[in-house]
Amino acid sequence: MNQLINYENLFLIILALIWIIVAVIQDFKKREVDNLWNFSLIAFALAYRLAVSIFTNNYWFILNGLIGFAIFFGLGNLFYYSRLFGGGDTKLLISLGTILPLSYDWLINLKIFGIFTILFLITGSIYAIIYALILMIKNYQKFSKEFVKQWKNYQKMFLISLIFIILWINILYFLSQMRFILIGFVILLFPILFVFSKAIEETCMVKSVSPKKITLGDWLYKTITINKKKIKSDWQGVSEKELSHLRKSKKNILIKYGIPFTPSFLFAFIILLILSYRYSGLF
Fold first, then answer.
1. What is the pTM of this model?
2. d(Cα 283, Cα 276) in Å, to the nearest integer?
3. What domains sit in the chain, N to C, each tagged with a CATH number?
4. How much is the pLDDT for 94?
5. CA dist., res. 272 & res. 106, Å (int)
């Protein structure tokens, strides 16, 4: 075993894999990950770290877990309030903070955190694109009509990007720096990807749901009024108080769902372990 995948860390690694796999199943089945499930990973990981610290008389093992928890608490909230994550994804990321400090050397731990975050963002982006393409194929007729509609709404954005790339090419030509021309084309892709994501959202991610099946944190598609009580569509999802009002509705309610993102945690964690095993010098 290498310096990261050793007997001391093996329990933490197995624990994380089990918890992430179950979280993925919950996410696909219920479109949410139970808070209790995420919090129990934190409890088990820290309890194990404390037991090992007492047995070895080296309390850095438990302190590393607490420091990792604090760092990922900050990172998770950054992603959450940047609207990149939902609440369940944020809590899963925070709980992994108790797992990922797999070394006593904090320079190595910072490398682990950085590599895991980069892997998560890369695999998450690839996964999201593939998932969206599958949704597009399954709902192609509705998608194509919505894409045209959204394109008409946002075609000014494309024209602005086109003007920018023309200016960019002229500037690069004047400065003899044509090697940077790809940056302009990436910017040109942005409005196309934006319209694509809007069309996917409108045709594939909005569902009519019975009030009894709405859960805490679900995102209303639009602001609605029930018994003279206005409930706003908010990215943070419905609160407990709002949920009690929603369940009084006699009609189905439109809910906006996101892509189940937990598989990205699994991909990133497995790749991290493979890199750790095959390229131990990387850490």
1. 0.78
2. 7
3. 7-130+260-282 (1.20.120.1220), 135-204 (no CATH), 206-256 (no CATH)
4. 93
5. 17
